């Protein structure tokens, strides 16, 4: 049995080994994708000397005689004569020959011209001050955010080469599940069919609508998985990861010729979970049937797999514990936490493997390593929930 850290690493490596599929999309459609190529600026930034203020751009000693005006978008000629200036707007191109810019609010004008004291820090940006043409600004594998889109536009791009979105499908196992109405008489509401597609979508996947629960027979499991694999890069299933009388996932995977990337990991909650590679290079994530355990499996195995498939890193952020969190012996303990106003992590109640009340308030899971006890003030890794679209870390 792999440790939790080993299982995450194996899933990321499995995804990273798959050759990427890329496409070029307009900037307006790139949000949430992943850069397939480095972002290299196509021009100097800025491309011309640019005024940072509204004021007077002059040459030589004052007073300056006003000889013109330069607005944003103009392409001015140089100032050829000492003692002259132009009125200049923020963002406008600074004429050649200018030796100083005086802010409009720090200047005065009179019969003899413009006077004012220029600041020690020049009020214009030089060519290439932010970046030189051909400079790599962002590496391949960088998530595309609105900020990345704005940077790309400033560099001269109208489209970006990005990884193709991954297609995911969810199969729900369990004859005991209800898809509507109140639980009772031995049957429970399916709480994973409604929520897991939303988590997968926040990881950046295109998710197919969920079908009714698959019947608890081996033949139905094999048929459902085969059909889903024709449409999806990743199939996630809920339930059936044990070896009970109606747990058909392992026999179905054997019949389909799958190989395990991870066949359970030493983590609580979330035991048992699996990730399998199917012939043809597609993947199946086997999530437990208990709701919180299924989400633990999602952040433990599926999130690093998706990071690998999209060329992203799978590093985890760190948080400081605001209260004690017990360990789970030889197992990694993933403890649901919220953050207080100071950014400290506190364990949430109602965090049993079958419960969802704590999950509804959580930012993620504090990672308490095997053999350890989380004490207040300790810095630990956080396995975050994808609270924002496209969030993989």
Automatic annotation (TrEMBL):
<dbReference type="GO" id="GO:0046872">
    <property type="term" value="F:metal ion binding"/>
</dbReference>
<dbReference type="InterPro" id="IPR005110">
    <property type="entry name" value="MoeA_linker/N"/>
</dbReference>
<keyword id="KW-0460">Magnesium</keyword>
<dbReference type="GO" id="GO:0005829">
    <property type="term" value="C:cytosol"/>
</dbReference>
<dbReference type="GO" id="GO:0061599">
    <property type="term" value="F:molybdopterin molybdotransferase activity"/>
</dbReference>
<dbReference type="InterPro" id="IPR036688">
    <property type="entry name" value="MoeA_C_domain_IV_sf"/>
</dbReference>
<feature type="domain" description="MoaB/Mog">
    <location>
        <begin position="169"/>
        <end position="308"/>
    </location>
</feature>
<dbReference type="Pfam" id="PF03453">
    <property type="entry name" value="MoeA_N"/>
</dbReference>
<comment type="similarity">
    <text>Belongs to the MoeA family.</text>
</comment>
<dbReference type="GO" id="GO:0006777">
    <property type="term" value="P:Mo-molybdopterin cofactor biosynthetic process"/>
</dbReference>
<comment type="pathway">
    <text>Cofactor biosynthesis; molybdopterin biosynthesis.</text>
</comment>
<dbReference type="InterPro" id="IPR036425">
    <property type="entry name" value="MoaB/Mog-like_dom_sf"/>
</dbReference>
<protein>
    <recommendedName>
        <fullName>Molybdopterin molybdenumtransferase</fullName>
        <ecNumber>2.10.1.1</ecNumber>
    </recommendedName>
</protein>
<keyword id="KW-0479">Metal-binding</keyword>
<dbReference type="InterPro" id="IPR001453">
    <property type="entry name" value="MoaB/Mog_dom"/>
</dbReference>
<keyword id="KW-0500">Molybdenum</keyword>
<keyword id="KW-0808">Transferase</keyword>
<dbReference type="InterPro" id="IPR005111">
    <property type="entry name" value="MoeA_C_domain_IV"/>
</dbReference>
<comment type="function">
    <text>Catalyzes the insertion of molybdate into adenylated molybdopterin with the concomitant release of AMP.</text>
</comment>
<keyword id="KW-0501">Molybdenum cofactor biosynthesis</keyword>
<dbReference type="InterPro" id="IPR036135">
    <property type="entry name" value="MoeA_linker/N_sf"/>
</dbReference>
<dbReference type="Pfam" id="PF03454">
    <property type="entry name" value="MoeA_C"/>
</dbReference>
<dbReference type="Pfam" id="PF00994">
    <property type="entry name" value="MoCF_biosynth"/>
</dbReference>
<dbReference type="InterPro" id="IPR038987">
    <property type="entry name" value="MoeA-like"/>
</dbReference>
